[in-house]
Design a protein that fits this description.
With 431 residues, the chain is of the alpha/beta class. The protein has helices at residues 15-20, 34-41, 60-67, 81-94, 104-108, 127-138, 216-219, 228-237, 255-268, 280-285, 287-296, 310-315, 322-335, 351-363, 381-386, 411-428, and strands at residues 2-7, 47-52, 71-75, 98-102, 120-122, 149-151, 197-200, 203-204, 224-225, 243-246, 273-277, 298-306, 338-345, 368-373. The radius of gyration is 21 Å and the shape is globular.
């Protein structure tokens, strides 16, 4: 089967730009589409092509004509969902291909894609289930009963058999098809540093249930760690890439496995640098793990601090404490690990809260602060909680940089204060 996998273009819209001419906030995504590379890897006996529309935004139609796929697969986060539906229509107009949609938004709100231009919706990890679907389609079975995949039923309910995810769904005995994006690789770099960056997955899912987060549906709440040898294999495949980003939502969620991976990297003599997502409480509990990872190349960690006081953290169900965050910062600085700190700005912020957050970041010397706006993504607990307050339902604006509920401050002032935080963080950034 000829299978075309599509990474959507940058298509999110920006309220501060459109209404107030503030252009510094608009979110631009650009990194290699590891999820599609992984899917392609497990379709090893099919002819697969990946088109990255974030690099080649106008390449869809030419790829449909030149490749003539039997199946087209899209991935999409929430702000890309509407664009994917439009592109699915284009696929139907220009080809006879079946259309499959998966990714974060499909996993959190699968009913959104229950449309005539989509044939199947993949919910959660799709590396194994997509292969199962392709196998059934090759047999001529147009109504396969595959857990985790729903055949669309426009006008009716979406029939989905729940899938209980396990390590088998990682299908990590086969590597991602990194070679399918070789021609795009010069575009996959660390922002502003022009250092080549490669993506590797060592774990999937997260055992926590933060109300704002859309990660849990990917694995049905399970936390799955990849086989150590497969992670080492994937790192080695990116032999020309000096920096590896472990894209896991919680890279060290299994400390035992994380330490085993560090030792395996050392034993293999791999000389690279690593970025990893970690929780502050893990850093406090296991400074030895951070120290060992620093020794094998850990350059920076991404930590979701989210807020700076306990009341706000409790409201998010973050299961974190402000004091633990401070302790984690001290430990990471002691070991010389750069901190990429994620903070969430509520539309309810007053000016004093902007002031307090900026002062906190300066005082704690967080090298690269990342600021997003609290966004009730469909399918999350936060969306249920804030549903009566949501005034903007256009998913193109769900980029985590727009307020889709009314701001307490005058809206223009809110975005001015937000832009000022971003500007100060950019000016002080050290990576």
């Amino acid at each position: 089967m000829r299978i075309l996998l599509i990474n959507p273009p940058n298509c999110g819209r920006s309220i501060p730009e459109e209404r107030y001419g503030i252009t510094s906030i608009k979110k631009i995504f650009r990194s290699e589409p590891l999820a599609l590379e992984a899917l392609a890897g497990n379709l090893y006996d099919h002819e697969v092509r990946i088109v990255d529309l974030k690099v080649e935004p106008d390449a869809l139609e030419s790829a449909l004509v030149s490749f003539a796929p039997d199946l087209v697969g899209f991935t999409a986060v929430t702000c890309e969902a509407q664009t994917v539906l439009k592109m699915a229509t284009t696929v139907k107009e220009l080809s006879a291909a079946m259309v499959v949609v998966g990714g974060v938004h499909a996993s959190c709100q699968p009913e959104f894609f229950n449309q005539s231009q989509v044939d199947f919706v993949v919910v959660g990890l799709g590396k194994l289930s997509l292969r199962e679907l392709v196998k059934e389609l090759e047999k001529g079975n147009q109504q396969p009963q595959i857990p985790g995949i729903a055949k669309t039923n426009p006008g009716g309910s979406l029939p989905l058999i729940p899938r209980i995810y396990s390590n088998a769904d990682l299908a990590d005995q086969v590597p991602p098809r990194y070679d399918l994006v070789d021609h795009y690789r010069p575009h996959y770099t660390l922002e502003n540093l022009n250092i080549p960056l490669g993506l590797v997955s060592s774990a999937v899912g997260c055992p926590y249930d933060c109300h704002f987060c859309c990660i849990s549906p990917i694995t049905g709440g399970h936390y799955l760690t990849a086989d150590i040898d497969s992670v080492i294999r994937d790192i080695k495949l990116l032999d020309t890439v000096p920096v590896i980003r472990l894209v896991d939502a919680n890279s060290f969620g299994n400390p035992v496995a994380a330490l085993e991976l560090a030792e395996a990297i050392a034993a293999a003599g791999i000389n690279k640098q690593y970025f990893a997502d970690v929780r502050a409480d893990l850093v406090v509990r296991r400074p030895d793990l951070i120290k060992r990872w620093k020794e094998v190349g850990l350059r920076a960690v991404v930590i979701g601090f989210e807020e700076i006081d306990n009341r706000a953290l409790r409201q998010m169900n973050k299961e974190a404490e402000a004091e633990k965050n401070r302790q984690a910062i001290e430990i990471l600085h002691r070991f010389g690990v750069t901190i990429i700190g994620d903070f969430i700005i509520s539309p309810d912020y007053r000016e004093e809260q902007f002031d307090q957050l900026g002062a906190y970041v300066r005082e704690q010397a967080i090298e690269l602060p990342i600021y997003t706006v609290l966004t009730p993504l469909p399918g999350t607990v936060l969306h249920e909680q804030l549903a009566p307050r949501i005034t903007n339902h256009d998913l193109d604006y769900y980029t985590l940089t727009n307020a889709v509920i009314p701001t307490h401050l005058d809206e223009e002032l809110f975005y001015q204060r937000y832009a000022a935080l971003l500007r100060e963080g950019h000016d002080q950034a050290k990576l």
